Amino acid sequence: DLAHYPAQDLLRVLATLLHQIATANDELRPNGQAASRSSNVRAERPSITTASLGALGTPSSTLCFHARNVPSISIESYLLRILKYCPTTNEVFLSLLVYFDRMSRMGLEERAGDAEPHPGMRGFAIDSYNVHRLVIAGVTVASKFFSDVFYTNSRYAKVGGLPVHELNQLELQFLLLNDFRLVVPLEEMQR
What letter would DSSP give residue 48? Predict the structure, then answer.
């Protein structure tokens, strides 16, 4: 039962998984070039809101997560730093995996009955340049959704090493890339 697992142990597991995903995607994108993804993936959900469709159609929606350089702090240290200065529940950290999975699938989903995916959409991949920003944006969004007690964006930004205006932008794009669907059923969380 991961929801009741010791927080630091859970973050080590989460960091290892995110590091493996980012490293694998880094290898697929030599010299920072975007990798093409197949558009043959079927949608689990038939529709995407107009706002999210618009966000996915513009490169800036995903580029805002792309850092100029790979951060020197490890993913594990970053997660532990967030836990130390912005304590929250395991549910928040576990939801990141669900949200990241949804984000990576969203650009590949097809409209119900259409043979083509949504125009302008591309798959979204986690890599070493965006994983830290995705994590802090995800924790900010998930904390506000799952808990009655959360911190200000200025605190999350300070802990995450970002200016508050950047975190505000990342938070909005994170919501758009998740189609504002933040509910994570327990069964999906345990998968």
Answer: -
- pLDDT tens digits, 78-121: 999 999 999 999 999 999 999 998 888 775 554 444 444 444 44
Domain region containing 85: 2-190
CATH of residue 163's domain is 1.10.472.10
* pTM over the 0.85 mark: no
Structure tokens at 100: 């990241």
How confident is the model over 127-159, as pLDDT tens digits? 888 899 999 999 999 999 999 888 999 999 999
- DSSP code for 43: P
Contacts of residue 84, defined as CB under 8 A and 6 or more positions apart, other chains included, come to none
Those residues whose C-beta lies under 8 Å from the C-beta of residue 187, and which sit 6 or more positions away, are none
Rounded-to-integer distance, Cα 5 and Cα 172, Å: 30
Tokens coding 17 = 């998984």
